[in-house]
Every structure is written in C-alpha cells, then in structure tokens.
Amino acid sequence: MSLMTVKEVAAYLEIKEARVQRLERESLLVSKDKDIEGNPLFDKDDVERYKVLAERLGGI
Q1: Fewer CB within a 10 Å sphere, N or C end of the chain?
Q2: How far apart are CA 48 and CA 37, in angstroms?
Q3: For residue 44, with 0-12 CB atoms within 10 Å meaning exposed, 13-18 middle and 19 or more buried, which class applies?
Q4: What angle do CA 6, 10, 13 make, to 5 degrees?
Q5: How far apart are CA 24 and CA 26, in angstroms?
Q6: For residues 59 and 20, is the Cβ–Cβ distance under 8 A?
Q7: DSSP state, residue 42
Q8: Tens digits of per-residue pLDDT, 2-55?
Q9: For the whole model, what pTM was predicted?
Q10: Which long-range contacts (CB under 8 A, 24 or more apart) does 46-51 make?
Q11: Is residue 43 within 8 Å of 2, Cβ to Cβ?
C-alpha cells in the first residue's frame, strides 16, 4: 500500500487541497492513516479508483 498526502492527491486529481480535505470529511475519499501532524494520508489505489469513478459520473 502506497500512501499519498493531501498535496499529492490534489495534484493527481488536478483539484485544490481544500477540495481533497472536503472529500475526506464527506467520506467520499477515505483516508487510511494520519501523518505526524494529523493530516490524512490516502491509499494510492483508492485515489485512482475514485478518479475513474468521478470521471464516469461526469467529472471531479
């Protein structure tokens, strides 16, 4: 399992970091762990699956 930071997820999905944090709060993108500062960390496979699903539904 490869973990991604909020910044990495935002860059991968081409959205703002605040949007990634909102997706996590709304449980649309589930974090797997927290870093030492308490920021969410996401599984790369989950992020990739989310991107595919979002594109099928009309965009992120």
Answers
A1: N
A2: 24
A3: middle
A4: 135
A5: 5
A6: no
A7: E
A8: 999 999 999 999 999 999 999 999 999 999 999 999 999 999 999 999 999 999
A9: 0.90
A10: 47/4, 47/9, 47/12, 47/13, 50/13, 50/23, 51/12, 51/13
A11: yes
Give the pLDDT score at 60: 73
Helices 44-56 + 6-13 axis angle, to 10: 30
Q: Are 58 and 49 in contact (CB under 8 A)?
A: no
- In the numeric block, the tokens 């935002």 are attached to 10
Distance CA 54, CA 18 (A): 17
Q: How far apart are CA 47 and CA 31, in angstroms?
A: 10
* Structure-token pair, residue 19: 């949007």
